[in-house]
Amino acid sequence: MDNEMKCPKCGSEHVYQDASLWVCPECAHEWAEGEAAESDAGGVVKDANGNVLSDGDTVSVIKDLKVKGSSLVVKGGTKVKGIRLVDATDGHNIACKIDGIGAMNLKSEFVKKV
What we know:
This protein is mainly β.
């Protein structure tokens, strides 16, 4: 284990390598070794395919997501228009409104740019 490697999201030193990815057991964040420096340096938000996201983009949800504290589900394929990028410590870096559900935050790893 590389003692210099830390989780880019929570700063934990308890990370391990799984195939080509690094994994943080504390916050469940996964990243490639080069991504850690890149995400810290620029604050760039990327979708599941690696496309850079910006305010006002339209994205599509890539899998069914349960809404915490509710019985609602955001279905895979749902299009979300006019996203706003936010700096959230819990990993939910997209603020948006979804038809039929309302305002909520999403993680960029569960969306793809349309």
